[in-house]
Every structure is written in structure tokens, then in C-alpha cells.
Amino acid sequence: RLSRQPESGRPELAVSFEFFPPKTDVMEERFWASLSRLAPLGPRFVSVTYGAGGSTRERTLRMVSRITNETGVPAAAHLTCVGATRDEVDDVVRGYAEAGVKRIVALRGDPPEGVGHAFTPHPDGYNSAADLVAGIRKLGDFDISVAAYPEKHPQSVDWDADIDNLKRKFDAGADRAITQMFFENGDYWRFVERARKAGISAPIVPGIQPIHSFRQIAGFAGRCGASIPQWLADRFDGLDDDPETHALVAAAVAAEQVTELLDSGITEFHFYTLNRSNLVLALARLLGIRP
Ligand code: FAD
């Protein structure tokens, strides 16, 4: 078991941390406090999401510029193409480049009604993430990440369509995929096997969602098509009013997930931080990553 080997004998690991752009001064304080605790771990990058329908366009740009220019940590800016013309999206890409941001997480985004509803591209817009990746490639030399779905994207008609779509994103020039949250490692492994069979050799980095609040994460999961296994729901059952036990169970669940992935050969992890650092710091330590 790699996770129990002395740290000196373990493979070199890479981590990245995802944040969202804060809305208020108090949230912004938490953002910077968490970032300053996680930055010393030497992440490959920290990424900042792009609010639904581009609603955080200015805030995302402001946060990635400040990260790039004030902390020295490589920043990745998320970008979606929903509800915008190609020219508008291209302007955002140019803004990222001017701010010194060299990494983009390129996404299609969801219609305002939510992920379950059909996506209609803007008549003058990019019509999918693959199309967006091709557009970004024309604008500059960016490191591009795209999304992957271990349980299949809710709009993919079948597995072949889902994997074909991922392949199109790599063919258009993506460098890596980051997965949607998942709680059964078997789903991740089956997905990677399907992708490799289809000739995709690029990294498919597992996206790990620590469960700061089971109620909140179950809600997110439901909205993005990730399932909550019954065993997981059982573990958190009745803990809504017991934050201490909830936090201990959350740490144990996430520790189990990442150490199992580490022991099966994973060397790169993406953490959905929700702008919090505690659980992620503990998980990094278990992986042998320290300041
Ligand atoms: P795509 O890869 O374009 O595909 C989505 C679906 O459309 C797939 O089912 C595919 O099979 C189908 N499809 C694609 N092209 C075609 C075609 N030509 N014809 C028919 N079907 C097609 N959302 C945000 O709003 N902001 C964020 O910052 C954000 N960050 C994310 C980060 C990660 C790591 C992940 C996993 C998701 C993120 N999302 C974000 C959510 C994402 O926008 C949604 O999951 C969205 O529904 C799909 O985006 P995509 O880039 O995967 O789309």
C-alpha cells in the first residue's frame, strides 16, 4: 500500500485546488485565508470557477489576476460559452491572457434552467466545449483542462456518445480532463478504461469533493448528475446537528477515497475546496504533500 510507505518512497504527486469567486467581503476574506493555507502545498494550479451563465465574468477575472500577480501560484480561469457570442468569449480569453493567466478550464456551461434542460448554443456562439477549446487554441498558447463525467454526462445519450465527446475535446487541443465529483472509485476506473479503449491517453484527473456539509453536497450532486451511494448517505444520516461527528466522518470518507486512488496508481488530484482549507489540508497530508 503506497499510502503507508514512508513519504520518501512515494511517487511524486500533483494537486490542484478549485475555488469559486466570492460574492461578499466576508467570503472574500475566507477565500484568501484558505488560499494562503493551501498555496504552500505547491499546487500545480488553483482554479476559479465561472458562475452559471457567465454571471461572475468580472469576479473570476479579478480573482485569477490577483492570484497570478500577488501570490505567484499558477491560476487557472474557468470559462463557459453558454449564452455568449464567440466575440464575447474571445474577449474574456484575451482578458485572461492580459492578466498573465495561462491556464483555462474550458466548459460549455448549463442553460439557465439547469443541467437537465437541453442546451441551445447562442446563434453566434461556440456550440460545445470542444468547439470552445478549438477557439481558445486559436487565440494563444494556453494550458487547457476540460470536464469529464465518471457517471456519464446527464445529456449524453449513451456511453459511446459521452466518450466520443471527451475525445473531441482532446482532439481540439485539451491537455487534461478533470472529473466531476464521484464517490465510488469503481465508476472512475470504469470511465478511465472506456476512455483508454477509445484511444484517449491524456490525464483524467479525479475531482475530489470533500463533504463539508452532506446536505449541501447531496444537493450539488443531484443537480449535476453525480450519485450519492446509499452507504454514503447512511454514514451521514442523523449528523445534521452534530458538526463534530460530521466533520470526522467527512474526513474519514475522503481519506478512504484518496488513499484508495493513490494505492491504485493515481498521482494527480483535483480538490473542490468550496473555498475552505481544513479537510483538503488533512487529505494532502495523508497523500504525503506538505508545505
Ligand atoms: P460538453 O463537453 O460540450 O458536453 C456536454 C454534453 O453535450 C455531453 O453530454 C455531450 O455528449 C453533449 N454534446 C456535446 N457536443 C455535442 C454535439 N455537437 N451534439 C450533441 N451532443 C453534444 N459550469 C459552470 O457554469 N462554470 C464552471 O466554472 C464550471 N466548472 C466545471 C468544472 C469541472 C471540472 C466540471 C466537471 C464541470 C464544471 N462545470 C462548470 C459544469 C459544466 O458546465 C456542465 O457539466 C455542463 O453541463 C457541460 O459542460 P461540458 O464542458 O462538459 O460540455
TrEMBL record:
<keyword id="KW-0560">Oxidoreductase</keyword>
<keyword id="KW-0274">FAD</keyword>
<dbReference type="GO" id="GO:0005829">
    <property type="term" value="C:cytosol"/>
</dbReference>
<dbReference type="InterPro" id="IPR003171">
    <property type="entry name" value="Mehydrof_redctse-like"/>
</dbReference>
<comment type="pathway">
    <text>One-carbon metabolism; tetrahydrofolate interconversion.</text>
</comment>
<comment type="pathway">
    <text>Amino-acid biosynthesis; L-methionine biosynthesis via de novo pathway.</text>
</comment>
<protein>
    <recommendedName>
        <fullName>Methylenetetrahydrofolate reductase</fullName>
        <ecNumber>1.5.1.54</ecNumber>
    </recommendedName>
</protein>
<keyword id="KW-0028">Amino-acid biosynthesis</keyword>
<dbReference type="InterPro" id="IPR004620">
    <property type="entry name" value="MTHF_reductase_bac"/>
</dbReference>
<dbReference type="InterPro" id="IPR029041">
    <property type="entry name" value="FAD-linked_oxidoreductase-like"/>
</dbReference>
<dbReference type="GO" id="GO:0035999">
    <property type="term" value="P:tetrahydrofolate interconversion"/>
</dbReference>
<keyword id="KW-0486">Methionine biosynthesis</keyword>
<dbReference type="GO" id="GO:0106312">
    <property type="term" value="F:methylenetetrahydrofolate reductase (NADH) activity"/>
</dbReference>
<dbReference type="GO" id="GO:0071949">
    <property type="term" value="F:FAD binding"/>
</dbReference>
<comment type="similarity">
    <text>Belongs to the methylenetetrahydrofolate reductase family.</text>
</comment>
<dbReference type="Pfam" id="PF02219">
    <property type="entry name" value="MTHFR"/>
</dbReference>
<keyword id="KW-0520">NAD</keyword>
<keyword id="KW-0285">Flavoprotein</keyword>
<dbReference type="GO" id="GO:0009086">
    <property type="term" value="P:methionine biosynthetic process"/>
</dbReference>
